[in-house]
Design goal:
The structure holds two protein chains of two kinds. In chain A, about 70% of the residues lie in helices and about 0% in strands. Chain A contains twelve helices and no strands. Chain B has helices at about 1-30, 70-75, 115-120, and strands at about 55, 65, 80-90, 95-105, 125-130, 140-145, 150. Classes of the chains: A mainly alpha, B alpha+beta.
């Protein structure tokens, strides 16, 4: 086989593996979300399709595939059909740089964190396109709110990750994980790292448009927000992308703050294949935290949302960066 | 410095809220309020104030407490209750006395407002716990609440 063909075949194989992970993780997260939501509200949740409802989302996906794709009469057809792909492709691209383990890492570039932040902002273009081209006032309001929200909270995501980059000294995700062999970054950077983690979780939740920052969808105000006019598989793309984005935010937090695929205190260092397990465990704990936020806090108004970002998170974040810089400069980090 | 106290207060109240829902999450196994209805039909117990339908309880001697005063019929806002009554001779006093022939209850018209039960001076009617009221023929929704051959319980009118 010539070199070029082999390279393309390899890329396609890896892409298929990632697509598989993408769909399975998406379906699984939707189910977990519904069960966890039910438990938070003293309900039972879906438990009929398969053992304890594990096939519920598969049945839902089948239903969505078989549904008619509808649209509004005067919608901008091209942009309307393009929007879901922006959202889902940006989510997929972000997944490619996540270090599942030392070996299981598709795309290890030296600007990994920057790439992740950049890619996660592309998703909002899909949301804006979808809202604009639907020719529906609710969709448009939802999309505009999404623009406001994402542009504001992008800052906090970037700055809180930058705080951690100060201590790790690299933007490459594999290097960030390597640094944490002497203690996870949240331990190494102690107080500023904890503050950065809290800010990252808040702004990450806002970035994924989940409650309490779901003014983009806001069922009780806007119908379904930017995807009001979408049905069938196109709706499912938006829906899956939301859950994958949640997974990505949790995975970034697990990588940057909690040591990625490293086991706690190196207890399974002799078994490197357990890296995937530790990575997924940490990620799902953080995903659970985001679900906990969602089913506890009420939705913020637009002005409250912007007050939180510009008056609280951003100044705290800037002071925090200086504090972290001082700590790194004076060698006050905790190393094991 | 209300700025920092606001941040502190915000974080504290958010954590308080999360502890409440977290406690719910941990207790959801035994505390779930969902009723898996057709499966637990045998053990399902409706709550005390549930309004399923109006019933007229009878005791073991096939006696009820309805004197036929028709207060419930007047109180009902949409004509759900019709009382067909008659006059009979009271054996003890020999006077003519009102007694019910049929207490007709149209379940299909009933809004479960409960005014008839509130107004009844002898507590002859009360709420039933049955909620499986669907039928294939709407004439079946018209019910006669007093059982055939039933009589007024002695002493109710005193």
């Amino acid at each position: 086989m010539p070199e070029g063909v082999a390279g393309i075949a390899e890329m396609i194989l890896i892409a298929l593996v990632y697509l598989g992970i993408f769909s399975v993780a998406g379906l699984f997260l939707v189910l977990v979300e519904r069960r966890v939501a039910a438990w938070f509200q003293l309900r039972i949740g879906p438990n009929r399709v398969g053992f304890q409802g594990i096939l519920q989302t598969l049945a839902d996906a089948l239903k969505l595939v078989s549904k008619e794709l509808t649209g509004t009469v005067r919608a901008d057809k091209f942009l309307y059909n393009l929007a879901p792909y922006f959202v889902i492709i940006s989510a997929l691209m972000a997944m490619s740089v996540l270090p599942f383990s030392k070996e299981f890492h598709a795309f290890d570039i030296n600007i990994g964190v920057l790439f992740l932040i950049a890619i996660s902002s592309i998703g909002v273009i899909g949301i804006l396109l979808g809202g604009w081209s639907s020719n529906n006032k609710f969709a448009l309001i939802g999309a505009m709110r999404s623009g406001v929200q994402t542009i504001s909270y992008e800052l906090s995501v970037g700055l809180s990750l930058l705080t951690m980059v100060l201590i790790s000294g690299s933007l490459q995700l594999s290097a960030i994980v390597e640094v944490q062999k002497n203690g996870w970054l949240i331990v190494q950077g102690h107080i500023p790292a904890v503050i950065a983690f809290m800010i990252f979780m808040i702004s990450g939740t806002a970035e994924t448009n989940r409650a309490p920052f779901d003014i983009v969808e806001a069922e009780s105000e806007l119908g379904a927000g930017f995807h009001t006019e979408y049905s069938g598989m196109k709706f499912a793309y938006f829906f899956l992308a939301e859950f994958i984005n949640m997974f990505i935010i949790a995975a970034i937090a697990a990588t940057v703050f909690f040591g990625g695929w490293l086991s706690p205190f190196g207890i399974t260092e002799s078994l490197p294949w357990l890296g995937v397990f530790w990575f997924l465990l940490k990620t799902f704990v953080l995903v659970f935290l985001m679900m906990w936020f969602r089913w506890t806090f009420p939705r913020l108004r637009v002005d409250q949302l912007l007050t939180l970002e510009w008056k609280y998170l951003l100044p705290v974040n800037l002071v925090n960066i200086v504090a972290m810089a001082l700590i790194v400069w004076l060698n006050l980090t905790i190393q094991f | 410095m209300s700025y920092f106290s606001d941040i502190y207060k915000g974080i504290r109240t958010l954590l308080k809220g999360m502890s409440v829902t977290g406690r719910y999450f941990l207790n959801s196994r035994k505390g779930a309020i969902t009723q898996q209805y057709p499966d637990n039909r045998d053990t399902l117990k409706m709550f005390d104030r549930f309004r399923g339908e109006v019933i007229m309880p009878h005791d073991e001697n096939n006696e009820h407490a309805c004197t036929g005063c028709q207060k419930c019929e007047i109180a009902c806002p949409n004509g759900t209750i019709e009382i067909i009554w008659d006059r009979g001779i009271d054996e003890e006093t020999g006077k003519k006395k009102k007694k019910i022939d049929q207490f007709i209850y149209h379940l299909g018209l009933c809004t479960m407002c409960g005014l008839c039960i509130d107004v009844c001076p002898t507590d002859a009617i009360e709420w039933g716990q049955n909620f499986e009221n669907s039928v294939y023929d709407r004439t079946k929704l018209t019910r006669v609440l007093n059982k055939p051959g039933s009589t007024l319980r002695p002493g109710v009118e005193d």
